[in-house]
Amino acid sequence: MCSSDLTNAKQNLKSVEEIEDKDLSDVFLKYKTILHEQNSFYLDDLIYCSVRLFIDFPEVLSQYREKYQWCMVDEYQDINFAQYQMIRSFMPEYNSNLCVIGDPNQAIYGFRGADVRFIRRFLEDYPGAAVYRLKKTYRCSDYILKASSEVIESKGFGQGLCKAPQKGVKIKIVENSSEKSEAEFVARTIENMIGGLRFFSIDSKMADGIEDSEIKSLSDFVVLCRINRQIKDLEKAFNDHSIPYKTIGDTPFFRADPVKSIIDMLKLAINPENSLLKDKLIEKKIISYKGLEKFLQFAVLGTGVDTYKPNVENVTLMTLHSAKGLEFKCVFIVGCEDGLLPYSLFKNQKSDPEEERRLLYVGMTRAERFLFLSHAKKRFILGREYHLKRSPFLSNIEKGLIELSKTEHKKRENKENLQMSLF
Fold first, then answer.
1. What is the separation of C-alpha 30 from the centre of its chain, rounded to a whole number of angstroms?
2. How much is the pTM?
3. Average pLDDT over residues 274-294
4. How far apart are CA 423 and CA 419, in angstroms?
5. Rounded Cα gap, residues 260 and 266, in angstroms
6. What is the pLDDT of residue 418?
7. E strand or H helix that includes residue 244
8. Sign of the four-CA dihedral 118, 356, 334, 384
């Protein structure tokens, strides 16, 4: 049993009495009791408790309906059941004053409880709604737009293909011998497109010294992967090639130590009666009761700067999930293999293939001009060697939109062999 079980119960608006698992029911009751004693809420409690309040006390709901007669919802494709019920509670009529924005092709958070079915049934819930479809994209080229649409097989909200302002260049699909070869390919391609970052890269003809006219900065590049474990090889290749980079993790800096502990300390300073937080910090041996005041004085000097900044001169490394809403002139999506996309390496972590399609679609449509999709014939993950086939999603892309190539990671020659013999 873990916190995800509690989250799932809250997202499905289960009361303590409605939870069939007795152990989970007991934990949920204790959880609610402790939060009540601490006068506290977790983030998902805000929706859960509000909707439960409306269910148990209809007169309260009537008051809030009178107060809030207009509602706007962004990213409607990512709402979960509790959020859906909250919206329906406020806006139950077919002609309610409700405006939503969303794209079912970008529904990629099912693992967090989101359900794409709610946006697909929107017109059933509100048959009087007017629908405005965006017919033109100002980001992607025509090649990228067509290819990404073919990956998801146009399973959207009944919309046709958008129009792009320019035709663009073909998508590159690159086969590599291994994950190291793949990382080396990405690094060398970036060096070549930027015009070379070192005298060695130009002198050795690794880069031609002539930058692509469309690329102005290292910040124009992003490398996207399915899981964080893929990033290590990319970081090594970038270090070998002296390419500045920034890794954007799924966990933001303010949720990781030491910043998280500093924030917890500041919360405790505001609410000294929060015994749960105090015990948590003491258990982590961050503070003692006597050291509280001294630590607070010290903690205010700490800062966190590990956030994405689009104009900084470095390449960005991140997961596909983290990239949603961003855009780059050149996008590399590594690990386009059956097992990573769609993700199915472990039996207990299998994902929804259709959501995985949408995830690749989201990654592809981050690209304005250049798009590289790479895969490897073998890959080490968690100490195990995998031989994965190319992602089946890539087979949906018509041949006229792509260029296929192969690359091999060649070992460097022994330095002794490069020395001229004197005899």
1. 33
2. 0.79
3. 70
4. 12
5. 10
6. 41
7. none
8. positive
